[in-house]
Amino acid sequence: MREANTFRALWEIGICFFLLYTGTIFLFRVCFLEFHIPKEFHVRDGWARMDDAMTIVFVIDLFLNFFFSYRDEQGVEVDSMRLIGKHYLKGFFVVNLIACTPEFLVQALVSAISGHSLGNDSAVGHSAGIARIVRLPRLSRILRLTRLLQVFKLVFVQSRRKTLEWLQEARWVRVANNGVGLLWVVHLLACGWYLCAAMHHDPSQTWVARRTVDADGEVSLLTRGPVDQWVHAFYFILTVFTTVGFGDMSAMTNGEIVFVCFTMMVGAVVHSIIISEVINIVTTVDKRHDFVAKQCELVEAFAAHTELDDQSQKMMRAWISFSAKDWMSNRYDRDEVKALITDKGMPRSLLGRLPASLFHGALVKNSFVAIRRCPQETPPRLPLLLALAVNRGHYTAGEIVYQKHDLAICVFLVLSGTFADVARPSPSGGVDEIATTPGQSDNEIRIEVDGPHSMRSRPHRQSTMEEMQVQPHSYHLHPYQLHGAGGYFGLGEVMAGGERVSTVRCESEVGGSVLTVQKSDVAQLMQEFPQYAMVWQSQSRRQESHRQRLRSQLTTGMTLRRFAAVRIQ
Predict the structure, then answer these.
(1) Among 226, 354, 435, 522, which is disulfide-ready with 474 (CB 3.0 to 4.6 Å)?
(2) Rg, the chain, Cα only
(3) CB 167 within 8 A of CB 234
(4) Are the C-beta atoms of residues 328 and 291 closer than 8 Å to each other?
(5) Are 138 and 103 in contact (CB under 8 A)?
(6) How many whole angstroms separate alpha carbon 543 and alpha carbon 546?
(7) d(CA 557, CA 430)
(8) How far apart are CA 563 and CA 218, in angstroms?
(9) Count of CB atoms within 10 A of residue 75's CB?
(10) How far apart are CA 184 and CA 172, in angstroms?
(11) What is the DSSP-derived secondary structure letter of residue 220?
(12) Does 38 sit behind a cis peptide bond, omega within 30 degrees of 0 on the bond before it?
């Protein structure tokens, strides 16, 4: 079953639930109830049924993993049954098998080895100690918690919902994840700290007996219930993790000393990782804030020089704040990366693999690059250098990409959505025109829909971001040439070195995404790949001739759906 399989996704969610139960409630019950000192606490039937259900699910999962695909070191999903079985047997199969081993089998094995019957494990102290040892393999189920990483990765990587993407990137969520991770590690080690006392042959010599819970120091923690004992164990481990060390609890027995030394080493590593991660989250936001502040200072200086009105300044600042994240993600030394691609001895295997991975393979399949019949004939450094030069852009439905008389400064490679050359219909053919600019008091947004009344208006009070995104009115312009995913547009004017001769608009209801290549980068690529320069020049002339022919056929305005239907017919 591949990662996209629905049953597998539902099964992973169920496994995730039982793993979370294993790492929290089950761990508490085993350590503080079944290993409770001075005597075991009775386990309710409801929790016992939960344990039985968990055992059954884990046994089924033990065999289902032989049918689940995995990703290799290169991130490629492997669905070969032979490779899956080999990978699973070398990996987590042994851990899963131990976690699924029934307790009565372990009990019988220990009884055979020790020569003692565990039918009444309270008969003698030796048998009581063996009975506790028998239950220790149950704790091996926590080793399955590494599966949580695979489940979470599968859920977030496969999902494309904006809510989950926002949760992944939200600062408070990332900080909370680190906090929850720290508390869980403390809980795990608190259970181990209690087991140091529970496994001792004389509980009166352990930290549980030495710990007092009253002001007079007469009431021992040994007389309290599981929850109280867990709270004190959790408190001690947290003081060790944070290096506070109040001194009110300490290790005495050899087992306690060894465990505390281990806890200090784990705490030093985990605490450092979490603190550095939180600092990184905070400083990243600070860097973005400083970047936005610097750009806003430039806007204020520009506004003072050009005497911009307050509303225009406000819209520019909103645009900067909205786009700052994308700008910062593209801030890297492109000359250094270019030198790495061209000057270093990159292995041929890597050089041949990278182009197909750029933008999930969309760049090398774009007709701007794929001008040869065989993709293997494309020079591998061409898409690499092109990817280095491009910038991603997003357009909403009805947004003007460029219009007639604009300066031709870049070429647009379509990643998703549909874009179209638009013009005003006339009996003699289409007429290239510019979109009309809305007035300062224009508070209406016109929406084009299919039907007898193609134009509808609705009043709408706009925020600063909405005002910034208000597009020039282009409802009098209709499509006559479409550009879909894998295509490109705007090359002819860049080659000619003049202004735009047409108007292009985003037609998709969900918007569209493009990669923009600046005019100077196109010229550099033409210089480095002269064989492509001749093809691009020839294509630009043919495309312009084709565009003019299609424009001459625009005698009646049509919506995108009607126009597409007519073109298909």
Answers:
(1) 435
(2) 34
(3) no
(4) yes
(5) yes
(6) 5
(7) 9
(8) 89
(9) 8
(10) 18
(11) B
(12) yes
pTM above threshold 0.70:
no
> Residues near 140 by Cβ (< 8 Å), separated by ≥ 6?
95, 98, 99
**In the structure encoding, which two tokens stand for residue 383, read together?**
């898409």
Q: Helical H runs in 65-92?
A: 81-90
Share of the chain above pLDDT 70, in %: 76
Q: Whose CA is closest to 27, among 61, 7, 9, 54?
A: 54
Q: At what angle do helices 162-169 and 171-198 cross, to 10 degrees?
A: 70
402 with 474: CB under 8 angstroms? no
Q: Phi, psi at residue 407, to the nearest 5°?
A: -75, 130
* More confident position, 205 or 101: 205
CB neighbour list of residue 505: distance below 8 Å, 6 or more residues apart:
398, 399, 400, 401, 419, 420, 422, 474, 477, 479
Structure tokens at 288: 């973005």
The pLDDT value recorded for residue 279 is 81
Tens of pLDDT, residue by residue over 206-265, are 999 899 888 888 888 888 888 999 999 999 999 998 888 788 888 888 989 999 999 999
pLDDT at 133 over 60: no
Nearest to 97 by CA among 129, 143, 33: 143
Which residue segments constitute the domains of the chain, with CATH numbers given? 1-159 (no CATH), 163-331 (1.10.287.70), 390-442+471-568 (2.60.120.10)
pLDDT (tens digit per residue) in 523-535: 999 998 888 888 9
| Average pLDDT across the chain, whole number | 79
Map tokens 């593209």 to a residue: 330
Distant-in-sequence, close-in-space partners of 528: CB < 8 Å, separation ≥ 6: 385
Under 8 Å between Cβ of 233 and 28: no
pLDDT in tens, 253-306: 898 999 999 999 998 888 888 888 888 777 766 666 777 778 888 888 888 888
CA-nearest of 543, 290, 307, 513 to 414 is 513
The span from the first CA to the last CA of the chain, in angstroms, equals 40
Contacts of 227 (CB under 8 A, 6+ apart): 32
Burial degree of 483 (CB within 10 A; 0-12, 13-18, 19+)? buried
Residue 437: what pLDDT?
55
Written as six digits, the tokens of 514 are: 């493009």
CA atoms within 13 A on the CB side of 129: 11
Span of 85-94, 129-138, 249-258, 389-398 with lowest mean pLDDT: 129-138
Give the torsion through C-alpha atoms of 190, 192, 198, 203, to 10 deg.
-60
**CA–CA gap between residue 379 and residue 525 (Å, rounded):** 12
